[in-house]
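Researcher: Here's a chain I'd like modeled. Treat it as a single chain, no partners, no ligands.
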Amino acid sequence: MSTETGPLTGVRVIEFASLAPAPFACTMLADLGAEVLRIDRPGGAARDRHTDPLLRGRSTIEVDLKAPAGSQLARDLTGAADVLVEGFRPGVMERLGLGPEDCMGANPRLIYARMTGWGQSGPLAPRAGHDINYLSIAGGLQPMGRADDTPPPPLNLVADFGGGGMLLALGVITALYERLKSGRGQVVDAAMTDGVAMLTASLHGMLASGAWQAERGANLLDGGAPFYDTYRTADGGFVSVGALEPQFYAELLDGLGLDPAQLPDQHDRAGWPELRRRFSEVFASRDRAHWEEVFADRDACVAPVLSPTEAVDHPHNRARGTFVEIDGLTQPAPAPRLSRTPGRARGHDGAARHPDGLRGWGVAVDRF
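Model: Modeled as a single isolated chain. Structure tokens:
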């Protein structure tokens, strides 16, 4: 598979099939022009490949890595690659004869990118885990949620994708850039706990300055402030409110038809329960569409809370082409956007499941 657009055109990536963050990173690399070849287990290549956006933009080959011939084939392929991406627990690739020493010994320019939850070292490194666990340990989950409730699982957006896949993609790009100067590859150890910790940088700053309380639901950004929260509308929908600055707050009150003289001061914490009660009453009096219309042309930082399917049809997203259709499946468009060498979302190319698909990788077709 090749493309004529994208800043990573000419970069070859070998992806060892895994779940969530590593495929997400490889999708981003493929969108930006990289040629990605995914090595999947026997019988796994056809699974969801036409319905999962995390599998777009690459070819797939099925290889039994536990068989000596399969392991050797994978090593041969990494010899022709710029980047190797794997998402197994520490030690798995080494036991398969595909660790950094095995692959980088034959290809010193190889960027060997490793995606795990806990990292390659530390007491938790060999343990199982999921997004919610990594988020918990890194201090990213406790601040979320209401003071009188348990912290809510924020899907798997924060650790898997924000603190995981994006961190991995950044590590790969950084290592490729450094290789331009040194001519040498290196290992990228991307851990979701590290990534989530990076995402909490501003929280640590606010804690240090006294601007953040340890109690959940008592701060500006965690639902404690009534002017930074979500509200239910008459039809069962929701709107989000982020009117932090005074000019936006004034627009919020005006749109709600509330007289500021009859309300507690915006930053009087003792008055926040009353503000929340008034906001809740007003928002609940009309449906979501009404509030969309009221705040459509106001800088009040009010927006409807859309489902993923609704988001596709929002006028702003349609105008920007935020979502695209590939092989009949609506999915997010490549991001970020580059002015001169833009990325391009492509469907799954199964050509590499056949011998001819590997000719460009220097692998003899008679090995199949």
